[in-house]
Amino acid sequence: MKLIPSSAQDLATVSALIAEHRDQPGALLPLLHAVQDALGHVPDDVVPAIARALGLSRAEVHGVITYYHFFRREAPGRQVVQVCRAEACQACGGEELLALAERVLGCERHSTRADGAVTLEPVYCLGLCASSPAVQIGEKLHARVTPARLQSLLAHVADTAEVAP
Asked: What domain of life (predicted)?
């Protein structure tokens, strides 16, 4: 994993978020969510400041970031495609959809394509178990996704992220 130092503006943003959340009970998760909402990820170089502010070890903060699939340690691509791999979605073809997404996007799971256009993330539960399999593209959820429908959705991703289908 390549470590790109955060900009002064990003560090100032994180400092303001720490000040906003530091005294909140159970502040770590809300603070990490706020940092990711603001920066798109939780950079490794802000972990020591978060740990100090909350009286935690860097290992504790790092452990939470790496435990929850939602948190990213690197900036995502311009478009993020998430394919559910929870049991209901797997039973209805989720693994096939993930493999198809890899082929169509030219991007392996858990990675961002070299051109920065798209990040492909397998996730565990998008909350649409009764309507599986599910995919999320950006902020939009899609239920009962078939391979043909996924190809159509990914063609739209191609248009908006300048991805070659």
From this structure: Bacteria
Q: Is the pTM here over 0.90, yes or no?
A: no
What are the residue ranges spanned by the domains of the chain?
8-67, 79-161
Give the angle subtended at the CA of 104 by the CAs of 98 and 41, to the nearest 5°: 65
- The CATH code of the domain at 79-161 is 3.40.30.10
The distance between the two most distant Cα atoms of the chain, rounded to a whole number of Å, is: 50
CA angle 123, 83, 41 (to 5 degrees): 55
For the chain, 165 residues long, the average pLDDT of each consecutive 10-residue run is: 68 94 95 95 94 96 90 90 94 95 92 91 92 94 96 80 45
